[in-house]
């Protein structure tokens, strides 16, 4: 089923890529005549309930869907394919029902987090595309060689970054958002003649580590960083990710890890990389580590097929795409905690803090 959906999405990508002539500013290209066609509106294909539901199924009538997409396409919205959608079918902005109820739930951008921007280009390798993962954060440290990035994190609201507790060191100095290429002053996509907005650097106002964390065992490996001032999340390279507010079946899920960590050849990546990793059942993971570690109910395992998270990715996210009110959203399910010393060690998964067990803790520690 996943392979069929992936094939359909690839066909959609090729369809839109083949008809793209130009993208004004690389942000949008809308056909103004769309609204004249029987009260339709040009919008993101994933925000149109009719097409969103079709793309998430495993359809037998793929050719019919592609034909209809071609007939109703109207350009791009924020680099995501757009179609003429009946206005009455527009996705509602009302909040979904959540299994978690907390007084601080309103402090999270539930309706706008984790927005999925479909990239019509076909990329090779594991280099992320510009603005593809706008929630990625880099933790800045004072070292003997000057300022350096030793851990990652994720933006979960305009003022809070989530990371691993073991990343909280005395030398911590600040947080950077909106980064892509560490060696580039300005991050640009030359084929599209587009450059991303500047990075955003912040001092730290407050740090909250989980009270149960002990560095020797790595359990409860989670921390919140409050930025000195709110991030500008109106730009495309800085956006918050969603938290798992509803419990879901994780077994069999395919996740994404991302970061600037050490690659399997031992060199540090200067450009943001990503990789797909499967979830590994806890019992299997425990057996693979042969008793070297005790994996608790607050942890989860993923990877181990030469695509695990590596040094420098600590504190970074383990994410997956879900359907929420007929929209596709990125949700963070784990925080990179620890794993094998050798990057990409075959058969040894990475171990992650299981976020589903900490959503209440996160909410309880948020401040307006």
UniProtKB/TrEMBL annotation:
This is CLIP domain-containing serine protease. InterPro entries: CLIP, CLIP_sf, Peptidase_S1_PA, Peptidase_S1_PA_chymotrypsin, Peptidase_S1A, Ser/Thr_Proteases_Immune/Dev, Trypsin_dom, TRYPSIN_HIS. GO terms for cellular component: extracellular region. It comes from the Eukaryota. PROSITE patterns: TRYPSIN_DOM (PS50240), TRYPSIN_HIS (PS00134), TRYPSIN_SER (PS00135). Residues 1-25 form the signal peptide. It is an enzyme of class 3 (hydrolase). SMART domains: CLIP, Tryp_SPc. Belongs to the peptidase S1 family. CLIP subfamily. Gene3D superfamilies: 3.30.1640.30, Trypsin-like serine proteases. PANTHER family: TRYPTASE-RELATED. Keywords: Disulfide bond, Glycoprotein, Hydrolase, Protease, Secreted, Serine protease, Signal. One of its GO terms (biological process) is proteolysis. Its EC number is 3.4.21.-. It is found in: Secreted. GO terms for molecular function: serine-type endopeptidase activity. Residues 122-367 form the Peptidase S1 domain.
